[in-house]
């Protein structure tokens, strides 16, 4: 996990996240990375305690939900921000967890394409990612 903060893309701006752990509450953004099938990297303005549970509240377009998880890592990044590895815990929120992971994958794909000189809109990145990777993602997620 690099100490460089992600550039928030279109998809990232349409997803509103808040990470809550006890009395700590901070807005978060998707960093685009998924370290494993069940871990997201989030950028926040404050550190969170590793090894402790947390809730991630998500608002995407007309959808609102929350997922529970565990803070696996929290590293200082540039500009006084922190990169937090959030391990999702799938319980009753299987569909929401899947949606959040897919959103993060699409944002990661969009950022990867930008590094290759292809600036994709959210819709373009989502369409390409779905056509190329959704079937594989579904198989891995459901396994």
Task: Describe this structure as you would to a colleague.
The chain is of the alpha+beta class. 34% of the residues lie in helices and 39% in strands. It has helices spanning 10-14, 94-115, 122-142, and strands at residues 15-21, 24-36, 39-44, 53-60, 63-76, 82-89. Strands 1-2-3-6-5-4 form a six-stranded antiparallel β-barrel. A hairpin with a 2-residue loop joins β2 and β3 (39-44). The longest helix is centred in the last third of the chain and has 22 residues, at 94-115. The radius of gyration is 14 Å and the shape is globular.
Count of helical segments?
A: 3
Class by alpha and beta content: alpha+beta
Strands of the widest sheet, in order across it, are: 1-2-3-6-5-4
Mean pLDDT: 80
Percent helix: 25-40%
N-to-C SSE string, H for helix and E for strand: HEEEEEEHH
Gap from first CA to last CA: 26 Å
Largest sheet: 6 strands, antiparallel, barrel
How large is the share of residues in beta strands? 35-45%
Q: For the CA atoms, what is the radius of gyration?
A: 14 Å
Low-confidence stretches: 1-9
Number of strands: 6
Overall, the morphology is globular
């Amino acid at each position: 996990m690099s100490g460089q903060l992600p550039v928030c893309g279109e998809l990232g701006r349409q997803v509103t996240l808040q990470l809550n752990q006890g009395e700590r509450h901070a807005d978060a953004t998707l960093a685009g990375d998924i370290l494993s099938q069940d871990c997201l990297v989030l950028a926040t303005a404050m550190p969170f305690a590793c090894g402790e549970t947390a809730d991630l509240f998500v608002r995407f377009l007309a959808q609102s939900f929350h997922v529970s998880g565990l803070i696996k890592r929290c590293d200082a990044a540039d500009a006084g921000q922190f990169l937090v590895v959030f391990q999702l815990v799938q319980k009753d929120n299987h569909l929401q967890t899947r949606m959040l992971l897919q959103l993060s994958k699409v944002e990661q794909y969009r950022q990867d394409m930008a590094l290759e000189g292809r600036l994709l809109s959210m819709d373009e990145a989502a369409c390409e990612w779905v056509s190329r990777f959704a079937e594989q993602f579904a198989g891995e997620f459901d396994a």
